[in-house]
Amino acid sequence: MGNQVTDTRTVDSRRSWLYKVSGGAALGAGIVLLVGMLIVMTTVLVPRSASGWLAALQDNWLITIFKLHAGFGGVQIGLLDGVDLLDLAILALAGLAVLGVCAALWRTSRIWSIVAAIQPFLGIMLFIATKTAGRSAAMGAALVISLVMLRSSVFDRSIAYLGIAASVLLLVGDFSAGIPPLPIIAALFGIAYVLFVLWFLLIARRLLDLGQGRQGRSIA
């Protein structure tokens, strides 16, 4: 990747407030995605077991895409159209989370950190403008910054590999939404969703550590 500099195990402690905010955002994104997944699992086992605002948490675009690939009854590609507040919230949380990671990896790659940092926010603007496109920017940003992680000692490599695997598989499932249901794609997409949740939770822990001034390399 371009504009690389010598890596270091330390990060700028003056950004501790950003690491705390970003860590909280990553934790929030991970929890929202996790709750949505758990609700889907629960409703499959016990139909109509969730209702109201709790049930709404299962309606993020990634779960809708999973349902499309898995052939859930009544789920159509048109459900991905329209501005959804939950999707906007996830994009915003992902953007804040990636921003903190980019700040921690600034000395590793300035150019690619900037590319990753702006993607979710450009995605939000595109989503609002088109009412359908732009949400994949969350995975695009995660993929780019996870690749940068591989050249850094600030984050454990296992976190980088999680982000790469999750992002690639989710992007494949996202771009293929609307094709006839295929169990293999549904299975891989479901695995990627779990990996994405785990990636957010792990970077949340690391960012919060950095916010507290704990500079040592994370252990995933």
Describe the secondary structure blueprint for this structure.
Elements: H1 16-45, H2 52-56, H3 61-70, H4 85-104, H5 110-130, H6 137-149, H7 157-175, H8 183-211
Low-confidence regions: 2-9
What amount of the residues lies in strands?
A: under 5%
SSE order, one letter for each helix or strand: HHHHHHHH
The count of domains is 1
Q: Give the mean pLDDT.
A: 88
Total strand count, please?
Answer: 0
Number of helices: 8
- State the secondary-structure class: mainly alpha
Apparent shape: globular
Measure the end-to-end span: 25 Å
If you compute it from the alpha carbons, what radius of gyration comes out, rounded to the nearest whole angstrom?
17 Å
Question: Could you describe the largest sheet, including whether it forms a barrel?
Answer: none
Helix content: 55-70%
Structural write-up:
It is a single chain. The protein has 220 residues and is mainly α. It has one domain. Helices cover 67% and strands 0% of the residues. It contains eight helices and no strands. The protein has helices at 16-45, 52-56, 61-70, 85-104, 110-130, 137-149, 157-175, 183-211. Helix 3 runs antiparallel to helix 8, helix 4 packs antiparallel against helix 5 and helix 6 packs antiparallel against helix 7. The radius of gyration is 17 Å and the shape is globular. The protein starts with 15 loop residues before the first helix and ends in a 9-residue tail after the last helix. The model is unreliable at 2-9 (pLDDT under 50).
